[in-house]
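To: structure subgroup
Subject: Chain for Friday's discussion

All,

I'm putting the inputs and outputs inline so they're searchable in the archive.
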Amino acid sequence: MSEGFAGRTGIVTGASKGIGAAIARALVAAGAKTALFDVDDDAGQAVADELGANAAYWSVDVADWESADTAVEEVAERFGSVDFLVNNAGIAPPRTLANIPDGDWERVLGVNLTGAFNCTRASVPYMKEAGGGAIVNISSVAGKNISMMAGMHYTTSKWGLIGFSRHMAYELAQFGIRVNIVCPGPTLTTLVEQGMDAEKRAANAENFPLGRWVMPDDIANAVMFFLGPGGAMCAGAELIVDGGILIGSGAAYADYMTIRGDQPAERKIVRPEE
């Protein structure tokens, strides 16, 4: 896995927990120097400490241009380059049009979409200087349909992030900078564990055609493919990592067979507590 990563530098936003922390761990394990951006300073610093000398934490509000630009400049000064960027930072409040509070729309699009723009804008000059680089933007299956857990502003931001990524992939390809998209499905992060009791998590595992929840490491593996040599000829590509949820529209998987007069196959269901 170290091929293409050793001695190079990656930035991961939203890196204090969940998917972002898994991506940071994968980058460091592959030999990359890794900058972790987040606003949860205690959790972010704890992950950086865990990862050792090749990782460092920056407190960054990605929605704020000055904060993002200053942090990226400091990363380049400390580690010598910016070769990889993973725009993972995101927030997902569960709102409807009727109960969205003032400022919530701007806050979600600010972190989820403008944050990716800010970090990309700040990082690209260093990638151009290095003769190339790779950017992966973490969208969602909500960017292919709608979110059943978060609000319309989250869905909007994830559709927008796919459009932004595809446009940047075309514009930046001439500089050897590859931009691609990973669309996670429901992923068993700490946030999900806190918001859903164990019984419901176990029951939901049965709705994944592949028989288990998506895990943060599954998303990290997809990101590493795009960042590494395997993704050398990918530009503007989308990789959906959702255990088959999207193709079934999230319906109870066993029902697909039974309502058609057939029996579902015996599947090994991996429930979170097992």
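Points worth raising on Friday:
The chain has one domain: 9-200+210-250.
Residues 9-200+210-250 form a domain with the Rossmann fold fold (CATH 3.40.50.720).

D.
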